[in-house]
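Anyone have tokens for HAD family hydrolase? Sequence:
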Amino acid sequence: MSGAYRALTFDGDGTLWNFESAMSLALEDAARLLRASGIGRPDGPVTARWLREVRDAVARLDAYRGQSMEKIRLASFEAALTHCGHADPKLARDVYDVYMRARWGRLHAYDDVPGSLAALRSRYRLTLVTNGNTHPHRVGLDGLFETVVVAAECGLHKPDPEIYRFTVDRLRLDAYEVLHVGDDPVEDVIAGRRAGLDTAWINRDGREWTHDETPSMAVADLRELVLRLTGQ
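Reply: yep, here.
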């Protein structure tokens, strides 16, 4: 199977770098700043969990469909302050700046990623396909990807299989020549398979697979992926 692949596409957040932990810690910093500024919700304190819920609600609004992650995040802090009865665009921008500095400062590639990508790059064309806003240079992975497909830039978002068809077309390959690698069962594995790609599920924390559609392979990290694909 691996001999037929000419390219590998990779998800970013949770697959190549620690997006979830970096985001959670950055939201804690943002919540602390708001509490220190005397901001509170009518029904309780400002928490990182609540800020995440506000962000998700803003992202679902038609007005923010297709907008960049940065615009959505700033709008979510503005919405949070409005909910707290303290609409203040300057404070929202200050909180946003604290959040972004903390997020970028804590974001890093997993230990297995740089060397594994370098090994795979010697055999395959590598592409990043992401719904997020992290470009490879942010985590020290610049120069390893032939191309980067960002949902907000191409107008297609996972789990829409069209983002994978778009990527395959950009690579000028057929779907059977591409293996997609990602950690999300729906956005990566199922959507990739529905676009006609083989898929590799990165399962870093030992989760159980609970869906009817299954990945072509499941691996614990990229080192195991290299071993499965190259035997080395």
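The two ends are 16 Å apart (CA to CA).
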